[in-house]
Amino acid sequence: MARRLAPIHLVLATVLLGCSPGPQAAPPEPPFPPRYQTLTLPQATVHLITIPDPVAYPLEVAVVDALATVDRILAQVCGGRDCALAGLNAGFFDPQNGLTTSAVVVAGELVADPRQNPRLMQNPDLQDSLDKILNRSEFRRYDCDGQPRYAIAPHQTPLPQGCQLIAAVGAGPQLLPQDTGELEGFIDPDRGRDALGSGTANARSAIGLGAEGEILLVMVAQRPGLANSGLTLAELAQVMAQQGAVQALNLDGGSSATLVYDGAVYHGRLKGAGEVVQRPVKSILWVPRPPG
User: Fold this and answer.
1) Does this model's pTM top 0.85?
2) Collapsing DSSP states into helix, strand and coil, what is residue 229?
3) φ, ψ for residue 134, nearest 5 deg
4) How far apart are CA 30 and CA 56, in angstroms?
5) b or e along 208-246 (b: 16 or more beta carbons within 10 Å of the residue's beta carbon)?
6) Where residue 25 falls among pLDDT bands split at 50, 70, 90?
7) In DSSP terms, which residues pair with 274 in a beta bridge?
8) Dist CA 100 CA 93 (whole Å)
9) pLDDT digits over 129-160, tens only?
10) Which strands sit side by side in the sheet containing 84-89, from one edge to the other?
11) Mean pLDDT taken over the chain
């Protein structure tokens, strides 16, 4: 019996389908890089770095023994190389003895402990507030199953289950979702104490977390030739909320306020004629430059 042959069009279709490479996976989207911008306000210039993808661009913390400017700390961290994309002054310290008044964690280790600062722990004016001071809010970076996660929380807040604390730096108060100045011992209405001059315009630094996971690094610079320039803490909170922050933490400010981006250094505190007033600092937040 003669063998029936398949129609030629079916043979060709089978051959073509067998040789087809099949659907190709789309290449991964490149991470969105940090972006720098300035906001010009009547009483201040706000320098803002937005990090849309803090997984691809993780934040690091650095602390030094001897106080140094932000750009010099970045040079120390990088060993003189240009390995840092951005940097911002961070925690509080005592300029008289150079010791921290904020807890600092680097690579999972507590490397700066305010309890080791005798001028803080033995200050008679602060004894009633020490519990609050030692539990001030901090910016945290966790490792949760190999992925970085970020938070702003009081120092004694337990870690999330399954997460390790990789880096942290204390500061305060929180600005968003609410001001925690009284809760953290910065403000004492009964004694008329306001350690940060929260209601006075000044150079400021802060960090914020957005609803979509983005991170905001903010430095408020005074306007040259303008008396009482800068922002109050309430005004800073308002600006950060307008930029999308749902949580925000005040950092050290005034003469410490310094932001570095892509090699350029921006200072917050200015004299009347515009001369920079810069104070060396103890700790910074920084963003490594990606390889390649």
Assistant:
1) yes
2) coil
3) -75, -5
4) 9
5) bbbeeebbbbbbbbbbeeeeebbbbbebbbebbeebebe
6) low
7) none
8) 4
9) 999 999 999 999 999 999 999 999 999 999 99
10) 60-68, 281-288, 84-89, 258-261, 264-267
11) 91
